[in-house]
Amino acid sequence: MYKVKVFVTLRESILDPQGTAVKGSLHSLGFEAVEDVRIGKYLEVTIDKSVENIDLAVKEMCEKLLTNVVMEDYRYEVEEVVAP
């Protein structure tokens, strides 16, 4: 089976108010060196090994459901896992 790690982030051109709020909170806690914070998502998807083209399958999943391709970028890592 495959374990796919998907990392989703807002595109650089999209404002990130949640990241701005976290940056402000970090500054108020004394972490003045923090220059920017961007908030994203992390997903893990386990896929049966019977899938012929894992890259194509993951791209389709990301573009159809897991991300908003207008506002978000994504990258992923595929790891082959041996079932216990």
UniProtKB/TrEMBL annotation:
User: What keywords is this UniProt entry annotated with?
Assistant: ATP-binding, Cytoplasm, Ligase, Nucleotide-binding, Purine biosynthesis
Entries under Gene3D superfamilies matching the protein: Phosphoribosylformylglycinamidine synthase subunit PurS
Q: In which pathway does it act?
A: Purine metabolism; IMP biosynthesis via de novo pathway; 5-amino-1-(5-phospho-D-ribosyl)imidazole from N(2)-formyl-N(1)-(5-phospho-D-ribosyl)glycinamide: step 1/2
Question: A Gene Ontology biological process annotation?
Answer: 'de novo' IMP biosynthetic process
Catalytic activity field: N(2)-formyl-N(1)-(5-phospho-beta-D-ribosyl)glycinamide + L-glutamine + ATP + H2O = 2-formamido-N(1)-(5-O-phospho-beta-D-ribosyl)acetamidine + L-glutamate + ADP + phosphate + H(+)
Gene Ontology cellular-component annotations: cytoplasm
Q: What is its EC number?
A: 6.3.5.3
User: May I ask which residue range the UniProt record assigns to the signal sequence?
Assistant: none
InterPro entries recorded for this chain? PurS, PurS-like_sf
Enzyme type, top EC level: ligase
Q: Give its localization.
A: Cytoplasm
One Pfam family, short name please?
Answer: PurS
Q: Does the keyword Flavoprotein apply?
A: no
The Gene Ontology terms for molecular function here are: ATP binding; phosphoribosylformylglycinamidine synthase activity
As for what it does, the entry says: Part of the phosphoribosylformylglycinamidine synthase complex involved in the purines biosynthetic pathway. Catalyzes the ATP-dependent conversion of formylglycinamide ribonucleotide (FGAR) and glutamine to yield formylglycinamidine ribonucleotide (FGAM) and glutamate. The FGAM synthase complex is composed of three subunits. PurQ produces an ammonia molecule by converting glutamine to glutamate. PurL transfers the ammonia molecule to FGAR to form FGAM in an ATP-dependent manner.
Q: How does it assemble?
A: Part of the FGAM synthase complex composed of 1 PurL, 1 PurQ and 2 PurS subunits.
Q: Which family would the database say this protein is a member of?
A: Belongs to the PurS family.
Protein name, entry field: Phosphoribosylformylglycinamidine synthase subunit PurS
Species annotation: Priestia taiwanensis
Q: Which gene encodes it?
A: purS
